[in-house]
Every structure is written in C-alpha cells, then in structure tokens.
Design goal:
The complex is a heterodimer of chains A (503) and B (329). Chain A has 503 residues and is of the alpha/beta class. The N terminus of chain B is likely disordered. Classes of the chains: A alpha/beta (503), B mainly alpha (329).
Chain lengths: 503, 329
Amino acid sequence: MNSEKLLEMEGISKRFSGIQALSNAKFELLKGEIHALMGANGAGKSTLIKILCGVHQSDSGTFKISGQQVLIRNPFEAQKHGIAYVPQEIAVQPYMTVAENIFLGRHPIKNHLIDFKSMEDLSREILADLGINIEVDKLGIDLSIAEKQLITIAKVISGNSKVLIFDEATSALTMSDTEKLFRIIRRLKAKGIGVIYVTHRMEEIFQICDRVTVFKDGEFVIDSQIDDIDLKQLIKFMIGKDVSTEIRTDRSALNTEILAIENLNVDGILKDISLTLHSGEILGLAGLVGSGRTELLRAIFGDLKISQGSIVVDGKLISIGSCKIAIDEGIGLVPEDRKSQGLILNFSLRSNICMAVLGRLKKFGFISTKQENSVTQDLLNKLNVRHNSFNQKVNTLSGGNQQRVVLGKWLATRPKILLVDEPTRGVDVSAKAEIHKVLKELAKNGMGIIVVSSELSELLQITERILVICRGQLVANVETQTTNTQELMELSTGEKLTHMDKS
Amino acid sequence: MTINSENAFNKTKIGLFSPRSLKIIREQTALILLIFLIFVGSQVSDVFLTGQNLLNIIWAVSVLGIVSLGQCILIIACRFDMSVAYSLGLCGIVMVVFQNLGIPWTISVLIGICTGFFIGAINGIICVKTGANPFLVTLGTGTLIYAASLTITKSKTVYTPFEAFTEIGRGKLFGVVHYSVAIFILLAIVLEIMLRFTKFGRSLYVIGLNEKVGKLSGFSVNKIIFAAFLICGFTASIASLIVTSRNGSTVANVGLGLEFESIIAVVLGGTSLFGGSGGALRTVVGVLVLGVLNNLLILMNVQTEVQQIVKGSIFLLIVWLDTSLRSKS
C-alpha cells in the first residue's frame, strides 16, 4: 500500500464558549486509506471535521496536507486543497436535473450563458468515472435516496479531490444501497483518495475501513489498524473504562404501576412499543440518535400522532391528543433541546418557569404576579439556580442553570410522570451531578421518570431498569444492575441479538 | 483588566450612546420620534400644540389606529391579516344595507360587527387548518371580501338613512372627545391589559417567538391563533363602524391601503415583524407618529408628493435604526 501521508493533524484544540470541544487531538490519513473516526456523541468528531472543512478554525495545532503545512480559513480554501465533504443531510435540488445538481454553483459558461451541453457531457464523465449509472437529465425529485446520496458524492468530488469525508452517509440507506455505496468508496480508494468515514453503525467499520481513530470527550484515545481491534475493545475505547465504578441507586420498593403502554405505533417511526413504569422508578431509554427514542417520549406526551395502541395512566385509559391533555393527566416532558423546545430565551426566569402552569396562577382571569413569584421562588430554591432576579432573562444563564430552569418549568406542573430527554446535554460536571440528584429525589417522592440519554454511563448511574430501542422497536428490557455500557451499545447498534420475547 | 473595563464603563455611562441610553433609544425609538415631532410642531406652528389640534390628530388616525390594534395582536403571534382593508368596506356595507332594509340601526351595527367576527373566523380557520401562510391566505380572502362588497353594492356608494347612526362617527363624548377617539383609547387599554396580564396574552408572545415551546407548554396553539384572527376581525368591524357613520355612507374600497398602513404603524411602534414583542400601547405610539407627521406636513403646507417622500423616508429611517441598534445590543 502507498503510505504517503495525505493529512496530518496534530495538537488540535478548539474551544466554544466555555466548552472544550477538542483538546490536543490528532488525526492522520494516508493515501488510499479508509479511516473511521469514532466516538460517542460529543466526543469531538464533528468539530474535527468542521475544522478540516474550514467551517471552524482550530485554536492551536498543526495541520498538514501532503506534508505541507496549510491554513484553512473557509470552506472554499478547504475545497481548493482537495477536501470534499459528503454531508449527512442529502442536498439535492428536487426540480433540477442530475447534471444541474452536480454543477450547482459552478455551471460551465459559454457566451455568458450556462453551457448545458458540456455540463451534461462532463456529468456523464464524472458519473461513469465513479461507476454510477444514472441518467444525467433525470430530475432530482425522481431519484431514490441512494441515488441522491451518489449524486451528492459526484457533486462534491472533483478532479483534485484528495480527501473525501463521509459523515453518517449510510444512515438513510438500506443494506443493499449501502453495499452499492461501499463499492464506490472502494473504487475511490483504489484511485488513491483518502476517505474519512464517520458512522454510528459499528458493523460497517469492520466491513470497509482500514484503520480507526477514537475520540472521547474531545481527546484522542487510540489510532489502530482495524485488524488489530475488535468490536468490544472499540466500544470500550469509545465509552471509557470505568464501567465498574458506576454508582447505581438501590432499587427501592417500587409501588403502583402509573404508566402502561400497549402496542404503541406511530406511522413509520415506532412499532409495537409496550412498556410499564412504576411510581418511584427511573426508567432509562437507550438507543442511537434517530432510533425513535425521542419520538417515543413525544408520542406519550401527545406531540406525535399515535396511529395505534393504548396508554394507561394510573389505571385509567386515556387518549392523549395534545400536549395539553398530557399535562392535565400529570405528564411532563423536559425536551431534548432546551434552547429551541424548552425555553423562550429572551423571556424572564419567572415567565419561563410559570409558562406551563399559567392556567393555575390566575386570579379573576389575570395572571397573578404574586403567585408567579411564589412558584418561581419555590422551584429556584429547590433546584439551586443561581440568579440575580426573577426578571433576569434566561439567555444570561449558563447551560446548566438553563437546564435546571426547564426542569423547574415542568416540576411546576406537579407531574406524576416525568419524561426527560437528554437531561444533561452540554452542562458541566457539577450541574450534571445536581440534576441527577434532583431526579433521584423526585423518584424517591413517588414520581415515575423516563430518561433518554446518549450517555450510557448516565443511564447506568441513575436508572433502575433500561429499555433499548433500535429502529423504532424496543429490543431489550434489562435490569441496570445486570448490564453494562458494552452490552447496551451492542444492543442499540443491533449488534447483539436480543433475548426479548416478541409478544 | 477589570479596572480598565470598569473605567470604560463609567466613561460611556455619561455619553449619549452608553449601553443604558442605547437600550432606552432602542426600546422607545417611536416614542422619542413622537416627542421630537411634537417639539418640531410646536416650533413651526402656533396652532399645533392646542388641545383641539392634538385631539384632531388622534381623531384623524383613530380608524387606522383601531385596525392597527387588531393587526398588532396578530403580528405579536407572528401572523398577518391583509384582508382588514376590505373588511372595513364589507362590515360597513352590511350595516348600511340592513339599515336600508328597514332594520333599526342599532341592530345593523351588531350585524356588521358579527360580519367582522365572521371574516376573522374564516381567516383563522383557513390558516389553522391548512397551515398556509397567513399573509397569502388573507390576501386571498381579502379579494373575496372585496368581491362580495362590490356585488352587494353593485360597485356604488351606499348611504345610511339614519341621522342618529352618523352620531357615532361625528359626535363627541361630553362634547369634548370624539367617540371614535374614546373607543380607540379604550380598546388600546383593554388589549394592552389582555396582552400583559392574561394567559392568552402571554401565549401570543410565546407562539410568536417559538410555536414549538408553546405547544409543548400545553398551549392550544390553534385555538389561540384562531382567537387572534377573531380579534383582528372585530377591530376591523369597529373601525368600519366609525368610518361608515362618520361618512354617512360607504363604498367597497373605503379602507384601501389600510392593510399596509396598519402594519407600518405596528412596526413603527416597535413591534417586531417576526413576532413575540411589542404591545397595544406601542402601536398607539406608532399610529400617533403617523398622525402627527401627517398633521405637521399639512400645517406646513407641504405638497402631497413631498408628504409621501417624507413618510416613506421616516419609515425607512426607523427600520434602519431599529435593525442597527438591535444588532449592537
């Protein structure tokens, strides 16, 4: 194999407003190599890729292309250096032909007009070169997802491309389409192009990659040839080793069943979900991004239309047609993205905390500021939110405090069942510990809680039982005491076949 | 480092563009402009500052003002009603037509107001059910309303047979303040209280800023939007009542241009076109700026063409100031 180094990145650090996304990371890519870049969510993969593509600039570190030190200040310069990026979202214009899509923004010009003939000829050449068999005058809207994916590749690749980055390229593809994509990737490899491959699907790495680099929490963990590593080791590197030190709550006496879901279906997203939740229980829901975990919470909360199935709260069969009904039935949802779903950022602390309970704080039809203040005071104390006044806008708070405010907003509704999506995303360690403490305390006082988290260690720390969801179906129901991060990871990637009965 | 920045802060504190005064300028651009215009008025004309002239100014803009109040409710929720101009025609036409059929004018007024509610309901239902852009939907319904008005009146002016009916638009409360001015101010105060202190008011702002948060917080987004359209239909019918009784007659296109003028007044007052901010009293200020400006230009005998140039320029100036000051914060 040709061992010429295409890319050398060393000592790369990047800090975003208070969060160290990458610290002293390194990455290397050889000519004709397919190199997997792995890590859990938030490990720093996408930051590194954005630095490569010129979207972000690193704070420190050296960056060489073919042995030459370079400075990439914007995506255009990255392109000039031969770095091409195939995005996760497929961007094909529906009402343009394949040729127009390929040459979008760089149409060949003749006599000040677009030269359609040479555009189509060149497109045919590019497609033939990649071994793609699609008519160049087909409209974008008539293409299958896999074809769109291939067109996207044809679009970003050009004569001087040396490095091709695939970011979750197969997440929307079926097995056979993925195989097609792999053939093309191998073809590119044979031409000497270096490929960086990012995916959540672990099995693919062993199918196609030569080498793997693992990041964790913004730091470089390991760089290994694929043959020298196995799946278990890889997952261990991605998650960290201290599995045994994880602290779990004792499974206290679980009382009554407060939520029972039978055969819940949401068209095209969730299939035959059945689960139960007891008062005083913290139930974890593990799964990859896009597995349907967030959608399950939204369906229970009335934010997604349920096509089939029943939801029983406190022994009473209810039909949850809207979030309002869910709130009235004692269900709360702390959504995944506090900034776009949980809070109104330029509203005050008070308005945010009282938002879901305004109906209760009325006096003669008007909102009572006095009652608002007492609710706010109560919750801010309970959650230990540092603040100057109730009128302070929430966008002046830190991420951890904002997250506590969202939690407070939902505690104000006095829910029996609390659904929590990513309770500690982007908050610092101490705030995280405190949020965990609050959740445990709530459960102790009889609340039933379902927690979704990408951080498996978080689930292991605070839950009593964990459900695993994969491609819209529950695939496992495990006692937290008896499982570990490796098993959960294998279950959620669909690596490990499950012992769960399909009843 | 900290000492330096503290010094810098103290220095800028005195200046006109210190963070604090900048904040006031940013938040009250229209009010400052209004005071400035009134000051200019008092300098160029002796009659400008008389109580009678000031009342006349409000009287002249009361119809625009009432329409703008309804528009303001929708804009806060990030919606628009482009059909208000034609509702202004139809509601009045309905009143006058029923009067000519021999129905007492008081009943006809109620029917006219119901027409306003009906138009609001139709706009609301279409927007909520289809999820289509309210701007386009109401442009469409506006055209249909106009067509209805033209059909009913056969494109002619229709006259009220009741002298008493014209009293609403022409008469004065206690012989001092025009009824229309009183109604405008009263509506503004009621709507301001509603916006500030009720759950419905709060939910309009939330929906205007982020519908998702509103929905997840348990607001019935559709019902709220529907209600906002109802209010806008109602205010348009009240404005129609005033303009019709003032004129003693009405015509299908009596409100021509009011849809844009009302949006201009609302935005001038400091309500963001993107929803989630502003208020009824702010809208009153915006309307008054337009009114005072108009009055001044007439008092100064400025030609009609030049009047338009001045109005357009002032509007652009406000928009520019607003945008640039916002980005500085």
